[in-house]
Amino acid sequence: MRITRTGGGHGRRAVAVATTVLTASALLLTGCSSDDDGDSNTSDSNGNITLTVADYGQFGYKEAKLFDKYHQLHPNITVKEQTTANEEDYYPKLLQQLNSNSGLADVQGIEVGRIKEVVDTQASKFADLSKTIDVNDWVSWKEKQATAKDGTVIGAGTDIGPMSLCYRRDLFEKAGLPTDREAVAKAVAGGWEDYIKLGEQYKKKAPAGTYFMDSASAMFNAIVSSNAQQYYDADGKPVYKDSPSVKQGWNLAAEVAQKKLSQGVHQFDEPWRADLRKGTMATVVCPAWMAAQIQTYSGDSFKGKWDITRAPGTTAANWGGSFLAVPKSGKHVKEALELVKWLTAPEQQADVFKAIGVFPSNKGAYELASVKNAKLPYFNNAPIGQIYSDEAKSIPEAVLGPKDGIIKDTIGKQINNMEQRGTKPDDAWKAATDTIDKAIG
């Protein structure tokens, strides 16, 4: 899981809630402490070795006490975590280390918004995991994201961000809308167009000072992410200007801005957090990890007033997720591979889900009780284990590109301009494409 992320277009930006069947606790960190960098390949004469895991934000291993458990299972191995708070700081350092072939940890985390670039340009620097893990254990599209053209697999999937819809039951009731999660899901079953229609109904009787959604840019991201073709085609060519999903997302975002259905705040910024505290948002597009942000900033006074249901349409979106990779340059590659295999196994992914709420990418975890039966009391006991598992099964196999993050973030800024400044859609689109073309060449 990641904290206050700003880089990597598909990545999560916040800590998720810890979930069990009956309890939930929100965790929100502004930074993570780092262990001493030290020598990433230490060993002694007695055969004791130290493995280092470099990651960013919050992967949940510390909270789930997995490194302590691994040491108990393997007394000769000590695992130390080197954590960078923000992925946008972590990734340039990783590229520098890969290019110089020095300073790498035994295990490196890679964010999904970066994986395509790493696979295309740095795959030869990583050990092939295909002989260590069974790629069929993961949701199909997850491991394909980390698979190079020659068939080598450079990353084992840690988590994913299946999309749902978080909504305020009390605000829906006051606006005369259905409040039952199945009824809400039915109301938006036709897709994001239905979601906007529901927003128009909400606006007619909206409680004073409230808005149907927080951000049209978040909706845009969900629309694009629920399609196989997004910003690039299968040949690696940028096609964002002609991509049907981008066109749909942009046009619907422009409609939302024009009809003033959104609060127009940039997600995760302080105004967004403040509006959650004030209770002025009726819906938020909700990847699995988003619940913690809502719970943390909405606070105790809104407990039970929020709920979670399926995302609009018949295909879900994925927002977030990471991988663990093993650099070939390590002195303990074999041991590092075994650690990655263990960390990404169903039981350990379920432990992380229970500890901080990030949803497993290993399908085997979905049938474990701590995942399958998970509910969130804060969200009216929403059965998130079942909701996220079902959503994960309908996420399409998307084509990723090396500059997805830049494209998405640039378009998102212009959508915010349409909402906040009243920028005309044509002007906003031109500003976005001009910026993107200069950035990606």
How would you characterize this protein structure?
The protein starts with 17 loop residues before the first strand and ends with a helix. Helix 8 (216-225) runs antiparallel to helix 9 (244-259), helix 9 packs parallel to helix 16 (404-421) and helix 16 packs antiparallel against helix 17 (425-440). It is built from 17 helices and 13 strands. It has helices at 66-73, 87-100, 112-122, 140-145, 169-174, 181-187, 192-204, 216-225, 244-259, 270-278, 290-298, 333-343, 346-356, 369-372, 384-393, 404-421, 425-440, and strands at 18-19, 24-25, 49-56, 77-84, 107-111, 156-157, 159-160, 163-168, 211-213, 281-287, 306-310, 322-325, 359-360. The chain is of the alpha/beta class. It has a five-stranded mixed sheet with strand order 4-3-5-12-6. Helix 1 links the parallel strand 3 and strand 4.
Descriptive tags:
441 residues, 5-stranded mixed β-sheet, 41% helix, 13% strand, disordered N terminus
Write the layout of secondary structure elements.
Layout: E1 18-19, E2 24-25, E3 49-56, H1 66-73, E4 77-84, H2 87-100, E5 107-111, H3 112-122, H4 140-145, E6 156-157, E7 159-160, E8 163-168, H5 169-174, H6 181-187, H7 192-204, E9 211-213, H8 216-225, H9 244-259, H10 270-278, E10 281-287, H11 290-298, E11 306-310, E12 322-325, H12 333-343, H13 346-356, E13 359-360, H14 369-372, H15 384-393, H16 404-421, H17 425-440
Parallel strand pairs: 3-4, 3-5, 9-10
Antiparallel strand pairs: 1-2, 5-12, 6-12, 7-13, 8-10, 8-11
